[in-house]
Specification:
alpha/beta, Double Stranded RNA Binding Domain, Rossmann fold, 2 domains, seven-stranded mixed β-sheet, 9 helices, 26% strand, Lipoprotein
């Protein structure tokens, strides 16, 4: 069930007439309505408060998820490349590996598949790459007759995928062991402030992508979260997206979406800001508009992570946000 939030009023510095003319105050007010969409609704919780000694271990999500995009360098036509990626995904699912076919999410690992021809055989090769692009391990399968590979029949691709799934699983096991030896990234906040990989904002007109991203970083840093560009050490990821569409009466529909994911690829929830503004009113500098929008959205992002246990129970019960970042000096001025 979505929960609607009544936005808090911005601090005096952000709402003074000298800093935000009526034009910008109106636009900012229109963008404030915020919906927080959680991944699931309320359910009975008979074990809450008395989960048992093994609960923490059993509730821990997988430490990674691996994405398998269609290989572009596997000597296969496009359709067969997609089929091979799906076959590998199914084989890894059978081995109980957290896997998804297609492009990786911000914190996903990636399986790169290539192939080279040597004599009468084509040899597939596999590389496990983490979210920052670091190769965690590589392995080569057994050669496949050139004729079989070039025909790219479904049964051949599934046979090779099933055969090589053990190789890939071994790579993942070694990569995960190395990661655990190098770092500890708990989901429950017990290892310090949660780290969030923020991949920025896309789709906004004017300087919206830059201004929204900069202000979101500022606000999240005041809410007990460590924001970073890379995936190393991050337990959560955040991505912003702005969508515009024509609306009647000289207006345009603006939707701002903030999607929060966990390291294992699970969608924790999204904060949505949706309304209509005068057409073209956001084509320039966002300034105070970005300030007010991200002030509200950052609180929702923090709530999503807290509801997932990312801040620890005590922090989730007693949120005490520090002072908000300073508002822009002039209306419409680019955020610094």
């Amino acid at each position: 069930m979505p929960h609607l939030f009544n936005p808090a009023a911005p601090p005096p510095a952000a709402r003074s007439a000298g800093r935000m003319p009526p034009k910008f105050r109106g636009i900012a007010a229109l963008l404030l309505p915020l919906a927080l969409l959680a991944a699931c609704g309320p359910l009975p919780q008979p074990f809450r408060g008395n989960p048992g000694g093994a609960a923490r271990r059993l509730a821990a999500p997988p430490a990674y998820r691996i994405a398998v995009p269609p290989p572009s360098a596997a000597l296969l036509p496009d359709v067969a490349s997609t089929d091979f990626a799906m076959a590998i995904t199914e084989a890894l699912e059978g081995a109980e590996v957290p896997v998804v076919a297609g492009a990786p999410a911000p914190l996903d690992w990636r399986l790169d598949v290539t192939a080279d021809q040597d004599g009468r055989g084509v040899t597939p090769a596999y590389s496990v790459v983490d979210a920052d692009g670091k190769v965690l391990g590589q392995a080569r399968g057994a050669p496949v007759p050139v004729r079989e590979w070039s025909e790219a029949r479904t049964e051949t691709l599934h046979r090779v995928a099933a055969r090589d799934a053990e190789l890939v699983t071994a790579l993942l096991t070694r990569g995960e062991a190395a990661r655990r030896a190098a770092e500890t990234v708990p989901f429950n906040g017990s290892g310090g402030p949660p780290r969030v990989r923020f991949t920025g904002v896309q789709g906004a007109p004017g300087d919206g992508n830059q201004s929204l991203a900069l202000r979101m970083r500022d606000f999240l840093s005041t809410k007990g979260l460590v924001v970073q560009d890379g995936a190393d050490g991050a337990a959560f990821s955040l991505a912003g997206k702005v969508t515009l569409a024509p609306a009647p009466n000289g207006k345009q529909r603006v939707e701002i979406q903030w999607l929060v994911r966990r390291r294992d690829g699970h969608d924790l929830g999204q904060a949505l800001q949706l309304n209509e503004v005068p057409t073209g009113s956001l084509n320039g500098l966002w300034g105070d508009v970005a300030y007010v929008v991200t002030q509200e959205a950052s609180a929702a992002v923090r709530d999503i992570i807290a509801n997932a246990g990312g801040l620890g129970e005590e922090a989730a019960r007693r949120p005490a946000p520090p002072p908000a970042p300073e508002a822009p000096a002039e209306a419409g001025a680019p955020a610094r």
